[in-house]
Amino acid sequence: MLIQLSQKQLKLQNELQEYFESLITPTLKAELSQPEYFEGGGPEFKKAMKTMGSDGWIGLSWKKEFGGKELSPIEQYIFVETVMRTGFPFPFLTTESVGPMIAEHGSEWAKEEIATKILKGELIFGIGYSEPNSGTDLASLQTKVIKQTDGYLINGQKMWTSLANFSDYIWLATRTDFEAKNHKGISMFIVPTDDPGFSMSAINTLGDVRTNATFYDNILVPESHLVGELNQGWSLITSQLNLERLALVNHGPVEQLYKDVLKTAQSTKIDNNQYLSDLSWVKHNFAHVHSGIEALKLICWKQTWIMESDQLNMAEASVAKVYGSEFFIEAYRLLMEVMGELSILKNDSDLTILNARLERMYRTASILTFGGGTNEVQRDIIAMAGLLMPRTR
Amino acid sequence: MDFSEQSHQTEIRDSLNKILSEHCSQELLKEYDANFKHDESLLSLLSANGFLGLGLNEKYGGSGEDLYDLGILFERLGYHAAPLSLSGCLVDVAQTIQKFGNEESCKEILSSIIAGEIYTSAILEPFNQDPENPMTTAKIENDQLIISGTKYLSEISSMAKSILISANSSEGVLLVLVESDKVKLTELSSTANSPLFKVELDSVRISRRSIIHEQGRGLEALRYLIQINMVMRSYIALGITEKMTSLVAGYTSEREQFGRVIGTFQAVSHRAADCFIELECLRLVNQQASINLNTSLDCENDALISKIWAGNACHKISYSAQHLHGGMGVDKDYVLWRYCLLAKECELINGSASQNIDRLGINITTNQ
Fold this sequence. Notes:
The complex is a heterodimer.
Chain A: H1 7-23, H2 26-32, H3 43-54, H4 73-85, H5 92-105, H6 108-119, E1 125-128, E2 144-148, E3 151-158, E4 169-175, E5 186-192, E6 198-204, E7 210-221, E8 226-227, H7 233-248, H8 252-267, H9 280-309, H10 314-339, H11 357-365, H12 367-370, H13 375-386
Helix pairs in contact in A: 1-4, 4-8, 5-6, 5-7, 7-10, 8-9, 8-10, 9-10, 10-11, 10-13
Chain B: H1 7-23, H2 26-30, H3 40-48, H4 67-79, H5 87-100, H6 103-114, E1 120-122, E2 137-141, E3 144-155, E4 162-169, E5 172-179, E6 184-188, E7 196-207, H7 218-252, E8 256-257, E9 260-261, H8 266-295, H9 300-325, H10 336-348, H11 353-367
Parallel strand pairs in B: 1-4
Antiparallel strand pairs in B: 2-3, 3-7, 4-5, 6-7, 8-9
């Protein structure tokens, strides 16, 4: 047993930190501070993605045939952790969850055209799973696909298609067999967003993160856009979600925020003799966050290590998702308590602390307990797969 | 990065499970519910099979200095609610002497511990919140020490040949091995009926040679002892809470109400799932702490984090398990109740979660 990063991995971490310091220019920062570019999609963002891609960072653990470097998933995790610490809205769902599925199960076209371009930082995906009447019960989805002689005809509507406003493709879950039982009639398609049948309307959220309702009106895609076998899409969805769940709870951002708030508290004088960090309740809040982060880091490292040799275990991926998402909410609360009322100031005052990151991050945290598979379902999975208890109903 | 156990570690766990499940049946454990909780024959068996040498160097007859190996022993003792209290002997005394003692005392004491001889420690003091700063005093007179003070929660002290005592002196903190016949022992009856003692030292006169460490390293040795004790106690907690969680899974998968097994209710299965999450976190922070202590003598924050998770897991899982078992959880004919009592003991001894949060907070805000 060895629970630490190797010298080589620590070196990589340092190298990446330096890399991002020069990559994330003031111009890029300025772009990312505009609400319409919070999640990326602007010209500077696209430029930075392409630079990361051509510098070979995006696919550290990917196979060489796609342009990757065939390092382990740990190196890949370090990359994502480090980029997320900077606050850059890295499209990790594309690179860490959809990308690997396409690389493994896609057609020749998808492997050559899509997977390699993801690694070059040239393509971004939105994920089309939820529908107006299919959320937690995803397998009830109704987006309809009919086989034609020259491909597949898609009709339907998706909800919460985040990033669709600047995505190149949608990773779309569809129903291809209406006779089969729920899970058995589902297929996955790669759908181009420049098709005239594709449209969307914005959904603005409490976290000032834009998401979308997306509409698919008689979109015809060729056979090559089907990923995996026809009607065998459910297992792709669950595998993608296991990868997504791990990526969602990466410990980098929360640890960075903790460190920054700690530094601020240590340099904030509350009277002539005392700093904020001298107060005992403040120390307690930091200790709660710190001990929670250690567990999260170890959960993520272990999951990543498992990926080296094996498929992600369902129960453990769900443990990561439930623990991580609920811990984020608790951690943000404890850290906001430390900075008190200052935490609710937005980014336009001379009193603003930490670029109002606390104010923004707490507003985006709530989506993680239900997004990526609601935590109730994750707990069902843990009870079944981890404790071998009967299925709940 | 490698989270896998080596094959010898899996073997240790398997053979311990075999021995302990035979010797810790309900019937056998019942005998210790009201009597002195120490199974001499089980101790001999563990000794005969080499388990008392886990975490100790081969040159003293041990199986190597890996603290993760030792963690497996304590995890399994917890899992089976074994009637043995060995952290004073195998952790406090053996590990501290191995790291800070001279070659001679290592040879003598470690090999006799491996052979089944009992030593113990007496570190904690009533009302003293800071075990690193003992209220017990050692007055230095030429080559003699005169020790006075009161210690408590010392394990199986009546069986011990010598007791490792912490005391403050003009040379700073000292760790001293005192023969048991020089102190006054009073058995304490406590929540899990563990064999715990009050140890009173009234001007006990012993040779300076009883100090186990080099001059000036007493505080370092005591800090190490406290930390490794926290981590190994957290392994006991891991075993206890793992057992409680598996009892929950088993019971709620069989018990029927409203015409279905109660594990099919989300309110039930989700509380069980939360136990599973808590357990996974505890396992990981324990692994990290024991591995870091293998290569460093001071890993205070890792140890504190382990004990914080252990304290919380003991509390939460114990009450969830009792609740989900309904009346069975408190019925002394069923297995769960013993684990709940052990959990409370494990939660509180050598630093509660809140106390350790306080300590960790101080370290974080002042040491960076």
